[in-house]
Amino acid sequence: MKTIWLTRHGETEWNTIRKMQGQLNSALTDNGIQQAKNLSKWIENERIDIIYTSPLKRAYDTATILKGHREIPIVAHEDLMEINLGQWQGQCISDVKAQEPEKHQAFWFTPDKYQTTSGEDFYDVRKRVQRFCQEVLDTENNKNILIVAHAIVLKSFIAYTKNLPVSKLWTGERLKPTSISKSTYMERKFSYAYIGKTEHYDQESGQGGWFIDQ
What we know:
Blueprint: E1 2-8, H1 13-16, H2 30-42, E2 50-53, H3 57-67, E3 74-76, H4 93-99, H5 101-109, H6 122-137, E4 145-149, H7 151-161, E5 180-186, E6 189-197
Parallel strand pairs: 1-4, 2-3, 2-4
Antiparallel strand pairs: 1-5, 5-6
Helix pairs in contact: 2-3, 4-5, 6-7
């Protein structure tokens, strides 16, 4: 049996102005850095053997903060990158809604019907998540793993490991910046102790941020 921790990166500058990031980058805010520091302290007594992170800077920077002074290897894995939003990347969510209201509606409410001509859909992300699970989780024997990634990747991971269809991706708990989820993995089955906890937030670092990587 191994423990799998899942966390989203800290709040970014584009999160605060509701701009869609996808596979583009924006820096962690001071608030996002503090969120990561608080989570690092919150999990400091947990045994973590290896950290897998998205190579996107906001996630890798969060992983580095979470590692702290512990001798834990950090491995960047491309399958943990956020969804490629194509031409939506770098746009404000309000502009996307105005320009392509039907696609915007599908993205948020019927993810199984969302289609794009310039990026990835939710099935593409699901395939990446499945590949990551088969490649990493079945080979890192008896290691407790911390995964640092993005909202859609983590929601896809949870849906896949709970055998939920893509249509149910947005159901369940919100995944705020640096929210933490804990599961156990044994005999290729997942069991979740909790999803999306933010007990490490203090009054200031709990403010701001958005559900999705805009």
